[in-house]
Amino acid sequence: MKYYLIAGEASGDLHASNLMLSLQKLDTGAEFRFFGGNLMQAAGGKLVKHYREMAFMGILPVVLHARTILKNLSLCKKDIAAFRPDVVVLVDYPGFNLKIARWVKRQLAIPVCYYISPKVWAWKEYRIQSFKKYVDEMLCILPFEVAFFQKHRYPVHYVGNPTVDAIASRDHQEETFREFIHAHGLEDKPIIALLAGSRKQEIAGNLPAMLEAVKGFSEGYQFIIAGAPGIDPLFYKDYEGSFPPVKVLFNQTYRLLAQSEAALVTSGTATLETALLHVPQVVCYRTPMPVLSYWGFTHILHTPWISLVNLIYGDEVVKELFAKFFTVDNIRRELQQLLHVKSYRQHMLDRYREIEQMLGAPGASDRAAEIIFAQKTV
Question: How do residues 92-110 score in pLDDT, each as one tens digit?
Answer without folding.
Answer: 888 899 999 999 999 999 9
